[in-house]
Amino acid sequence: MNKIDAKVHSGGSDRETAARDWKSGYQAQVREGKTVRNRSGLEIQPLYWPDEEVDATYDAKLGFPGSGPMTRGIYPSMHRGRTWTQRQLIGLGRPEDFNGRIKKILKSGASALSIIPCNSVYRGVDANEVEPELLGTCGTVINTVQDMDISLADIPIGDISIGLNDPNPFTMLAQLLIVAEQRGVPWSKITGTSNQSDYISHFVANHMFYRLSLTGARRVQLDAIEWLAENVPNWNPLSVVGQHMQQAGATPAQAMGLTLSSAIQYAEDCMARGLEPNKFLERFTFFFDISISFFEEVAKFRAGRRIWARLVEERFGVSNLRAKRFKFHAQTSGVDLTRQQPLNNISRVAVQAMAGILGGLQSLHTDGYDEVFTTPTEGPAKVAIATQNILKHEAGLCDVIDPLGGSYYVETLTDQMEAEILRVIAEIDEQGGMFKAVENGFVQKAIGESALGFQEAVDTGEQIVVGVNAYQEEEEETVLPAIDRPDPDWMQGQIDRLAAYKANRDQGGVTTALSDMRTAARSESENTFAAIVVATRAGATQGEIIAVLRDELGFGRPLVVA
Amino acid sequence: MKQATPEMPALARRLINGETAALARAISVVERDTPQAIEILRAIRPHLGQAIVVGFTGPPGAGKSTLVNAYVAELRRRGKTVGIVAVDPSSPITGGAVLGDRIRMAEHTLDEGVFIRSLASRGALGGLSASAAQVADLMDAADRDVVILETVGTGQSEVEMATIADVRVVIAAPGLGDDVQAIKAGILEIADVLVVNKADQPLASQTRRQLNAMLGLRATAEHPVPVLSTDAINRVGVADLADAVTVVADRRDRQTDRSALAGRTRHLLAQAVSKAAEAHVMNSRSEKVEDILHAVQDARLGLTDAAKQILGGILGYNANEQ
Amino acid sequence: MTLDTVIPARVLVTKIGLDGHDRGSRIVAAYLRDAGMEVIYTDPWQKLEAVVALALQEDVDVIGISSLATDHLLVPKLMKALDEAGLGHIRVIVGGIVPAEEEADLLKAGVSRVFHPGSGREEIVEAVAKLAVDAADDRTDD
User: Fold this and answer.
1) With a CB-CB cutoff of 8 Å, which residues 122-151 of chain A face chain C?
2) HSE (CB half, 13 Å, CA atoms) of A555?
3) Which of A2, A292, B294, C67 could tie C96 with a disulfide, CB 3.0–4.6 Å?
4) What does pLDDT average to over chain A?
5) ipTM of the assembly?
6) What are the phi and psi torsion angles at A138 (to 5°)?
7) Which residues of chain B have pLDDT under 50?
8) Residue C27 and residue A455: Cβ atoms within 8 Å?
9) Minimal Cα–Cα distance from B118 to chain C, Å?
10) What is the CATH number of the domain that holds B163?
């Protein structure tokens, strides 16, 4: 095995040249070359790799992190340089409740913020159009620019990465941009990602996020990508999601294959618009589920990264290194958590998180152990963040890049997962691409079969689940935090606030902006997202904007029956 | 206003008076084929014949449910009340079924003028539930102006649908390879109206041409079969479809086709007999049946002769004298 | 020997409220189908009035509500609406993520059973079959 300083200085072999290149990239990212030692006092190098005579296939299959096949990571330094972003999804009650909680979470170590809106927002309706019992029970009620402003009070929005769980047509992003405008923060300083922007995934597996029809969402998606590239250049307009599919029952390989097929579809759609893949692919990001099948998950991420780097070059002629990087956020899987013996979930989350970290993720959300009981409450959310901190600082997971690389098992498994993922991609290609395969129900059917298969394995005991079909306990002593439901009076206050907001705005301006947006949606050439930003600035609520767009572009509904 | 006579079963009376819950319940009773069922069916007889029964069939993927949904919206616009019998296949092994056709018709769920009932085919070969005809009668008696039968498009349901429906609409979609083939296989003969749905798709006009050509070969047709184009999702061509159905229905009324009604009853009877005979053979352990079974097993008796002997046993007549 | 048709239990499997995660309801629908029942399956987000209309038209014995978020909070309202529509005989079960204290509220409102993640095929099928019989016994109109 090689060490960084021993062999890199001089030399003629390709391996050594590649290692030198990697090292200079590494040093550019990690400025202070502080020596890392383990508890026995041994020095830990950032990367280990085989000699050429030991493994001749290394360069083609693994290579050095940050270039080439990218199997070992997309950056030269990976977690040894900058660790992953700790991104906890929270959202609760009123905007001020969210604001109070996000400030606490940022203090406890989270390094970016995410907003989950209330399910009513996902459905594209305003607070006054919902059964009041449900309002704010799953996320924050954000209907207007004012709501967004209150949610982000005292938060330096130009200096922190913001994840918006904001499905097509991206009304929350429009609200964020108007808040920035009002605060004098230039749009170029707004960074973050439109999570839940992958409308195809919603039609495949998560019937919660879509607000427009498949074709309508496709239109707005491309409009947004095009407009944001011009106006908000550091925003990631697309996060391609494998999480929903795996949560819905796809196997890890299936989920990865389908996600890459979606990304191919989006890239082809962008290219059909005349956009340049070397540019727009820099802003593509991914979002995956991490199950507890530890090695399988590590191999899934390594294989996916390798396929993507090669695929964008072969299919789209991409040469820009930054456009080949497979950047992904991951969330530990709630499906693996159990209601029985719920504290066991803390261990499950830790193992899932490890798989994601060793698989080379860029951003991580860890689930609270109470997720099977309720929407996550504050205590368990803290434990979830602490889990990340423990893995990062106590377990030494960041010391070495791709520490499982070179394991006979992991490399073989990575190859096998790669073959399986490629098989899935080929299957989708045969259907005419992901859009068509979803439209005709092919994908939904395949996932449904996998879901049933897994459930059967649990039912028959072939798959052991501790506390569920093995190691059950008679009397369960479980201490669970009290459920956290928003105060009904507060929610009435939110409904009143919306009414006051509407009463105080320039109604003529809103009507004009909404009508202009309708015209834009009808025309083939105008940009719908630009019109959404204008309507938001004029004071239109998200419910009003989505209602008009649904009228013009169609309402999103599930495509396939059980 | 229909008059319910006092001695009829309460359920039938409530049904005739237009009570939705009674219609729903009566359908279940008829599906169970209990003694009460026959009372209800007898009670509603004088109230039949008001509704137009329209059958929709076509291969899977042609967009049947979506087209039915759009057609219903058009009928509601015209002030007609509607009953829909949506038939999905049962599993031949477990008998269970997931009935999801009405998902495509969700917009009518809260409309009291639309009553939708999902039926499982329960092993009926042609894709129509055995009791679909009786369910259609119940809807007719319950004052539905139009009763729609939506059937599994296996390409085998044509005969049964032909016996039940006044107007038969056959749906094709462009670009489905076997589509035209399936239609050739027999549905074409029973179609009163042909529809090429998904007319916005590239192969639509080609499919239309193919269908027209095939119809041209059917020289015996009394009335030319219209070939319409619809785009059900965008509600294009649906009013024309509604008009075409009305034209056929009016023609039927003028002909007052008694023989068709007799044909339908004969068909239902044949179906019931075969079901009963099957149950007898499967469940009976009588000596006679066992003897015949062994004779077939030992190749002493052919299947057809065996069937005749069994029928003779059940019915008490000589099945050879036909 | 009987020639009477045995009609399988009819079950409406649906979701109310705002959430759309339907893995659970799909799996349960498949379980019940494979157990020989007839399952009326719908999109998520059904309005309460729609559930009542569906249950009425389809003459179901059991309604299964899947709730992965907080939509079970609406179930007491649904129970009341079913009662008012004369459908009090229909048995209602809820499956999904329901906190213990809220489970008690649901049972008090008349829900027959609450299933949690980890409930197996047999447990669900057996319970639904039994509840369907109970519902049929309770019918008042035949």
Assistant:
1) 122-123, 130-131, 133-134, 137-138
2) 10
3) C67
4) 90
5) 0.90
6) -125, -5
7) 1, 125-127, 254-255, 319, 321-322
8) yes
9) 7
10) 3.40.50.300
